Amino acid sequence: MQLSARTRRKVVPATANGGDSADKLDQLLLSSAIGNGEDLGPFVRKAFASGKPETLLQHLRQFSRSKESEIEEVCKAHYQDFILAVDDLRSLLSDVDSLKSALSDSNSKLQSVAGPLLASLDSYVEAQTISKNIDLALKSIVSCVKLMELCSRANHHLSNNNFYMALKCTDALESEFSDKAPSSTLKRMLEKKTPSIRSYIERKVNKEFGDWLVEIRVVSRNLGQLAIGQASSARQREEDLRIKQRQAEEQSRLSLRDCVYALQEEDDDENGLSNGVESDSNGGAGLLGFDLTPLYRAYHIHQTLGLEDRFKQYYFENRKLQLTSDFQVSSMTPFLESHQTFFAQIAGFFIVEDRILRTGGGLISKIEVENLWDAAVSKMCSVLEDQFSRMQTANHLLLIKDYVSLLGVTLRRYGYPIDALLDVLSKHRDKYHELLLSDCRKQITEALAADKFEQMLMKKEYEYSMNVLSFQIQTSDIVPAFPYVAPFSSTVPDCCRIVRSFIEDSVSFMSYGGHLEFFDVVKKYLDRLLGEVLDEALLKLINSSVHGVSQAMQVAANMAVLERACDFFFRHAAQLSGIPLRMAERSRRQFPLTKARDAAEEMLSGLLKNKVDGFMSLIENVNWMADEPLQNGNEYVNEVIIYLETLVSTAQQILPAQVLRRVLQDVLSHISETIVGAVYGDSVKRFNINAIMGIDVDIRLLESFADNLAPLFTDGDANQLKTALAESRQLVNLLLSNHPENFLNPVIRERSYNALDHRKVVTISEKLRDPSDRLFGTFGSRGAKQNPKKKSLDALIKRLRDVS
Fold first, then answer.
1. Each residue of 230-258: pLDDT tens digit?
2. Would 215 be classed as within a structural domain?
3. What is the number of structural domains in the chain?
4. Which domain holds residue 474?
């Protein structure tokens, strides 16, 4: 023990006396290296290198001998220790024997005491094992009971078609008992039945979804019809409000004293679509059975089954196929009869898709709905282009346009863009108006052909309101007594109704088409209707069917009434187009029926001239070389005035003053030209002053006739009527003048003789014979003094001949 406890000491060589020698130094170094356990290789190499290995051996022997004494001392020390250890072992041996005997005794006692305990322990271990088995059995039973309860609940949910809860029970069975089944039989049962249940549920929900797909097509059509119908009702309410507003504006324009209030009606059905069609925010049944429960149930079940993406794709493909099927236009049914069903089906489809997009929890994406809408818009535009190109009736095109615009209004509420549809409608604007013009041309032709050129008789106030007030062609705000004979024939209200219908149809087509300001378009086609259709039809009627003065007078009266009606047409178009009347008045052109009006007045004037010519033929009976002037006028003028007075008494009942004035002015101008023509013509070879004075009386009678008509006209119109006789009056004044050479004075001529032609003056002046000198002094006394008037007249004739 002491040997092991000792530590090894490091050998440090002592310094030898006389360490000056090299051998001693080498020996010391070698001893130090050996004592320190260093490598002796360098010493060996050095010894051989120096050729002195014997010295190295000698040093090694010396070192060995120096250590022998140390070894001996160590051995002696260890020997003493060994003796002591042996003594200790001998004493320990006796103690071990004593301990062995004690242990033997203790073992015997332990064996005798522990026997019964070991038996009890064995019984305890056995009981504990039985208890564990019982616990395991109880756990198995509880697990089986829980499994059977889950199975029972799953079967119950399946029998009640509560598929989601059945799937939850199935998932619970699979998660809790797939690896912990109490028995292999139950485990096999679970492995077999769980996929079967899921497959069964998937088939059932797919069948319900298929039934929903079939049902939703019918629901979509009814839904679209209801939504478009509500849009139509809303539009009608807006139109009613506009009508009331226009009536209020019209009454205000007429400066009525009664206050007019336009109350905005409460729109009880403003949210009719959302309250009816979309009453169930959870996708339940709405007003038309708009039920999304089967769809959402199928979607939820597929989400639970982990088949969400597959169901989304399945749903999208089926709905896309349905939409494609909805695009089919039957060739067996006219599109006019089927267009409402066609568009209502598409509208309902996208109303449903909008609801599913908002409440379906990602069943369909916004991009997918937009793609479906783009396809639908493209197809609808194609169908409209094709159908519009085939239509030849304006009313059919208008009906379809109105329904398409209602479709656009309906779907715009759901955020669908409808610009492409509106572009198609705008594209066919010109064709529609051409068809409308063609229809109106036929109607106007039929209305004019049925005209009997008789004043219209109205027996009841409603007839007056329908035929006069509704077109604002009355001349007074006072309602006349009935029966009332209108100054126009039945053609006027018939044509007014046709034009008004044209305006309303034009505005109806242009309205709700994406254009807010369309009055210019309506006005353009209204100008065409009036200027090309109505004007040409009236012109044709005047040239082909008017044969008498009464007919011509009636047509002229009709034209005057139509002139007032045209003002109403433009105001009506402006009101329907929603622009202020002052703007419409600024854009007004001249009367569009100018050609027909002028033709009617020319026809009336021509017929009157023909009548007057019959009386003017009596001018041949005038004595141009009368011995004395007539005091009461010639026969022809009396007959003419009697006829004109009779004419005026009749004409003023139906013809406006302006028209009557223009016609009479034309007739009087013709009479004046006839008188001048008679004097100028070859039938009158010569005449004297007495005959001219008789003509002066005739002209004064005609002027008196014009003056008597002054109450019918304004002062300016009455003066214009007298100017129609200017040529004959100026001619008579010139011939009766004492200084006829004043005709040569430009100032006097412009003031007093501006209607005379100098060539006619020369010819007529040459025919004048003075009674005092029947041949203008050619024959008679040469010494007599020449008549100053004759001299002036001769000078006038000479100067005019020189000018000619």
1. 888 888 888 778 777 766 765 665 544 44
2. no
3. 3
4. 429-600
